[in-house]
Amino acid sequence: EHWRSYNLDTLPTQGWYIDVEKNLVVESGGGDLVTKRKFENFDLKIDFQLSALSNSGIFYRVLEKNDTAIWCNAIEYQLLDPKVLENSKDLPLQKHATGDVYDLYSSSYENPISIGTWNQARIVILNNYVEHWLNGKLILEYKLESDEWVDLVGKSKFRNYPNFSKTTVGNIGLQEHGSVVKFRNLKIKEL
Length: 191
Fold this sequence. Notes:
By secondary structure, the chain is mainly beta. Helix content is 7%, strand content 37%.
């Protein structure tokens, strides 16, 4: 009851479901989910389980815009089986591994996850200071709107999206990217 489809008031009719173990599961189709509530400063913890070759993400400070994909406006905590990038000629593992800020920052943690087992993502934001945690370890930290942030965004693909990271209060989002990912134990504490 705390979720809905991105840019809609209802849940998707396909692609997302609750399995027998009470996990939130995404498969192909259905689009992205967002929280009904918006958050500014928060501590988010969520367990996730990736399947082989899965690609997904946790978005934060989502700004919803009609006819615009969620990734054009929101920051992404990447969730990815590293084998996806081993087979890709387009994207390097750097800035695209689990725990990274997609396309902007690389984490300091190598080989952090096992496919088919539970892992925990944690995102903490307080006054534009952001931390990414993975399995209990702080792996990345940065400051939104800092000179470094503005420079990185200006050199990335997000430079073409004027609303990218421009809201301080936004939804939390879970990405549907055509592969099976399970989520459980989602907890958000406002700071």
